[in-house]
Amino acid sequence: MQRLQPQSLATRSTASRLGWLLALITAAIAIPAPAFAQQPEIDTGTTAWMITSTALVLLMVPGLAMFYGGLVRTRNVIGTMMHCFTAMAIVGVLWAVVGYSMTFGDSIGFVGWNSDFFMLQGIDETVRESGIPEYVFVMFQGKFAIITPALIAGAFAERVRFRGYCAFVLLWTTLVYFPLAHWIWGGGFLTGRAIDFAGGTVIHISAGVAGLVSALYLGARRGYPQTAMHPNNLVMTLMGAGLLWVGWFGFNAGSSEASGLVTAQALTVTQISAAAGALTWIAIEGVHLKKATSLGLVSGILAGLVAITPAAGDVLPYGAIVLGMLGSIFCYGAVLIKAKLGYDDTLDVFGIHGVGGIVGAIGLTFFLRPSPDRPSIGTQLWHQVEGVLVSIGYSAVVTLILIILIEKTLGFRMPPAEENAGMDHVLHGEEGYGLLNPN
C-alpha cells in the first residue's frame, strides 16, 4: 500500500475544513433569521402636533400665574406668581427622575414602576405605537404634572411660607398625583373603567379637594372676610385667562395622542364648552347682580373648560354645551356657598376646579358618543362615581397629612406680622410694581 505523504494529509484536512464551513454557511442561509420586533415608524404629523400641544400646555402655567397674580393684593403678586413658576422647576425635575416611571410603569400595587423610565434612561430611541417618540409623550404628560400643584396654590394664596410650599409641591406630587395618574391613566385599577380623557379627576378634582383641605386647615387670611381684599390687576387676570383658554386646546386635544378625528372632536367641544360656560356665568350675574363682570366672565370660561376636560374625547357638541352650562351653574353656586360658610379658598380652587371637575366627570355619562363597546349608562355612571370618590378621598386624606407634617416641621402658615407685610417683601425681597407702599 502506498503511504500518504504529509503534504497530501494537509491538503485533505484543509479540504475537509472548507467542506464543513460551506455546509454551515449553506445551513445558515437555509434557516430563517429570527424575527425581531420593529418599532413603529415616526409619524411626523402626529409628532409635530404633540410637540405643539406640549408647548400649549406649558403656556398654561404662566397663564395661570397671570390669572392668579392679578387676583391677589399688590403686596403678594410676585409670591403668588412664584408658586406657579416654582412648580415648573420642582416637578420638571421630579417627573424626569421618578414621576414618569411611577405613573406609566408596570403596576407594582400602589404605583407603577419601570427601571427603564427611571431618569428616562431606557427610552432614548423608543417610538410609541402612535408614531411619536417616547420623549414627546413624556414631556406632554409632564406638563400635566406641573400644572396640578400650581392650581392648588390658589387656595392658600397670600399666606404661606415659600419653603413650606416647595416641600408641599414635592411631596404632594409624589404621593398624590403620581398614584392617581397611574390608577386612572397608567394601567391601574381604574384604567379603562372611569373615563377621564384629559384630567377631570386626576388633575382638577384632586387639586380642588387638596385646595379645600389646605384652606380649611391653614385658616383664612388675616382680616378675611371683614376686610375687603380686591384684585390688584384684573387686566392681567383677563390676559391670563386668555392664555389658559388657548393652552387648553393642547391640554384636551393633545390628550388624543393623535392628529386625526379624535383630535378634532376634542378641540371642537373644548371651544364650545368654554364659550357656553362664559355665556352662562355672565347671564347668571346679569340676573343676580344686575351686571356682568370681567371676573365672572373668566370664571365661566374656566368652569366650562374644567367641565369638558374629562369628556373631551367622548361627547358630542350638544353635550359640550350642556356640560359648559352645568359647570358654570354649579361653580357659581359653590362660590356663593363659600361666602356663606366663610372659609377662605382664596382663588376658588375648589369652587371652580373641584366642583367643575365633578360635574364633568359624572355628567359626561349622559352625553357619550354612541359606541358598541361602551357599557350601559348605569355601569358607566358607577365607574365615573368610583373615579370621583377615589380622587376626592385619596387627595383629601393625603393632603391633610402632608399639610400637618409640613406645618409642624418646616412651617407652612406665615406669622401674622410677615403676612401683613406681604409675601413679596418678606419672602422674596421684591415688589411686583416697584411701589414704595404696596397695599
Please outline what is shown here.
With 439 residues, the chain is mainly alpha-helical.
Please specify the SSE layout and strand pairing.
Blueprint: H1 6-30, H2 44-71, H3 77-104, E1 106-107, E2 112-113, H4 134-152, H5 162-184, H6 200-218, H7 234-253, H8 261-288, H9 294-308, H10 317-341, H11 349-363, H12 377-409, H13 416-421, H14 423-428
Antiparallel strand pairs: 1-2
Question: Which key phrases capture this entry?
Answer:
disordered N terminus; mainly alpha; 439 residues; single chain; Ammonium transporter fold; two-stranded antiparallel sheet
Please give a structural write-up.
There is one protein chain. The chain is 66% helix and 1% strand. It has 439 residues and is mainly alpha-helical. The protein has one domain: Ammonium transporter AmtB like domains (Ammonium transporter fold), CATH 1.10.3430.10. Strands 1-2 form a two-stranded antiparallel ribbon. A hairpin with a 4-residue loop joins strand 1 (106-107) and strand 2. Helix 8 packs antiparallel against helix 9 (294-308). The relative contact order is 0.14. Residues 1-15 and 21-36 have low confidence and may be disordered.
Query: In CATH terms, what is the architecture?
Result: Orthogonal Bundle
CATH topology: Ammonium transporter fold
Distance between the termini: 121 Å
Percentage beta strand: under 5%
Query: Rg from C-alpha positions?
Result: 28 Å
Structural class category: mainly alpha
Report on the biggest sheet: 2 strands, antiparallel
Order of helices and strands: HHHEEHHHHHHHHHHH
User: What's the name of the CATH homologous superfamily?
Assistant: Ammonium transporter AmtB like domains
Mean pLDDT: 92
What is the count of DSSP helices, taking H or I runs of 4+ residues? 14
